[in-house]
């Protein structure tokens, strides 16, 4: 099996693109609109921003799917295809959920346009329906975060055992993902804390920089297959 260490640099750039797009979409484009108390009013006045954010969100999830496809032969070489299939499976599920998530956001955009132009009797009905869509989107987003966390768990577990990157980075990744998953479960049952998502983001940046500079270390993987 021909495994190129420079492939790691591609994965590094994709990791970095994911991080940048995640911050851009959630912190600057979509987040300030969709999480506003008056989201049903302001969404329609930010049509271009919302559509751009949803498309970038799909690209972000697609980058994760691309990483899984690229890593498949590396993980397969280590563990007889099991890790590779688990990781690819979780990323496919996550990508599918992301499509549904962003479709609901676009539905909220359409409803927002109806809401701002509706007469008084219809506004209450549209507001109730909009709130229902908002809550539905919130739960779907939580499921996306949960599946994404499981995907990252398999990823960092695989990176730890294959030693494609230094174990200190993949080990920190495992810890950061556990914190992330714990916070997702906390958010499902209660409120959670946004700051608890920070460790996984910092590790992702660290792994990205390492891979862009160094690429994959194939020494352990090659010795495993001898």
What would you say this structure looks like, in words?
- By secondary structure, the protein is an all-alpha fold.
- The chain is 84% helix and 0% strand.
- It is built from nine helices and no strands.
- It has helices at residues 7-29, 31-34, 39-42, 47-79, 82-117, 120-162, 167-189, 198-214, 219-224.
- The longest helix has 43 residues, at 120-162.
- It is elongated and about 75 Å long.
- 34% of the residues are buried.
What would a concise description of this structure say?
The chain is elongated and about 75 Å long. The chain is mostly helical.
Structural class, please? mainly alpha
Radius of gyration: 20 Å
Shape: elongated
Instruction: Please tally the helical runs, counting DSSP H or I stretches of 4 or more residues.
Output: 9
Overall strand count: 0
Key terms:
about 230 residues, mainly alpha
SSE layout and pairings?
Elements: H1 7-29, H2 31-34, H3 39-42, H4 47-79, H5 82-117, H6 120-162, H7 167-189, H8 198-214, H9 219-224
């Amino acid at each position: 099996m021909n495994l190129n260490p420079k492939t790691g640099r591609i994965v590094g750039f994709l990791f970095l693109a994911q991080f940048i797009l995640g911050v851009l979409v959630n912190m600057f484009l979509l987040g300030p609109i969709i999480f506003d108390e008056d989201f049903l009013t302001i969404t329609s006045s930010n049509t271009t921003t919302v559509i751009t954010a949803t498309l970038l969100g799909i690209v972000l999830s697609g980058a994760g799917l691309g990483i899984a496809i690229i890593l498949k032969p590396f993980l397969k070489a280590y563990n007889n295809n099991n890790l590779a299939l688990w990781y690819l499976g979780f990323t496919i599920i996550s990508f599918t959920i992301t499509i549904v998530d962003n479709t609901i956001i676009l539905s909220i955009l359409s409803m927002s346009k109806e809401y701002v132009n509706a007469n008084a009797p219809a506004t209450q009905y549209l507001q109730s329906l909009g709130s229902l869509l908002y809550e539905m989107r919130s739960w779907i987003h939580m499921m996306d975060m949960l599946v994404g966390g499981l995907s990252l768990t398999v990823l960092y577990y695989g990176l730890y055992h294959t030693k494609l990157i230094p174990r200190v980075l993949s080990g920190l990744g495992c810890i950061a993902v556990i914190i992330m998953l714990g916070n997702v479960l906390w958010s499902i049952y209660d409120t959670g804390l946004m700051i608890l998502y920070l460790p996984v983001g910092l590790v992702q940046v660290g792994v990205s920089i390492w891979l862009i500079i160094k690429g994959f270390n194939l020494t352990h993987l090659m010795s495993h297959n001898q």
